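Researcher: Please translate sequence to structure tokens.
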Amino acid sequence: MPILSNIGCLAACVDTGKQEDIHTIPDAAMVWEGEHIVWVGEKADLPEEFKEHERVDAERRLVIPGLVDCHTHLAFGGWRAGEFALRAIGSSYLDIAKAGGGIASSVKHTRAASEDELYEKSLPILDEMMQLGITTVECKTGYGLTLHDELKVLRVYRRLSEAQPVRIVPTLLAAHIVPPEYKSRREDYIQLIIEEIIPAVASENLAQFCDVFVEETAFEADEAERIMDVATSYGLRPKLHVDQLADGGGAALAASLDAVSADHLEYASEAGIQAMAGKGVVAVSLPFATFNLRQPAMPARAFMNAGVPVAVATDFNPGSAPSYHLPAAMYMACIMQRMSPAEVLKGATCYGAKAIGKASEVGQLINGHKADFAIIDAPDVNHWLGHFRPNAALMTVIGGETVYSSI
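Model: Translation complete:
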């Protein structure tokens, strides 16, 4: 039963209060047994029964819950570096997509990749994420868009979950775009999703969520409703990519579908924000995509003022957000979205966990939760995010086991 002691500051990030309330405990200690936390508080209040147990020295550093990246597209074939060059000289996301690039390009390369190739490409990425203090990652499909290839990617996620310690939450995103071969047969592709892909995924228990991209180049609101009706009947909880490139009423759609989260939301309307607040939908901010596509920043302050929890994630993918560095995305959220470091930390821990239905297990340093945490080489969260470095994480612990340490 180890004791993490000599903690300069511990941010418990409890799911109470406002977004900025990260429940810091100075001069703290934390005790865990097996996979779970059994005590957290000030060192002076450590119960007598724990005082003789093995000590782990935090060296007066900051301790945070393990970071939760609640929106990634981890397994994909190829990269889209050429699109970066095109955007740099003025091409838009829609221009590239309409010319056959974007998601359609990644679909081509992902279909050509074998399950083993996708697995071998993803495994070291998860290791590098773990070294950044990331302990839980949501992983979407969306680059297969056939029954075979969507199942292939989800089976990669299952293998990865069994092979390494980072917690993986799989999401079906077969409704990412209508693939090129269905361009003139849109309804046939929707029927494929409804009649074949969703039932097959559910039968193998390969995903926990179903996601739909609602946008001009992807799916319409009524199509999303049809897909989600079937997905929920099979036990897949709804998530949505919405209002990324224009206000398409996506935030309100997410509320009407009782979605766990709505992601992107750069163009969300005030009415949509209020609808999400009324239904408790988490807003997921994706600063890398906003930055790379030169979009207006997601109006995080409007969401928070309305009482909507704002999570922060990377949107890691081969094109619009080709980075899995969640601390960098957190830094960008502070600058671009006018979020305080405390608000961002809660967004990448407690609210990130809430966005993937895991708030009762991870994202908070409280009794009964998983002993997932990171030691950060900083005295507090303001210093950590205000003095950005390639990596300030010194130790990552998942389920009570040290999986990375440079101390």
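Researcher: Any highlights?
Model: The chain has two domains: 3-66+363-405, 67-354.
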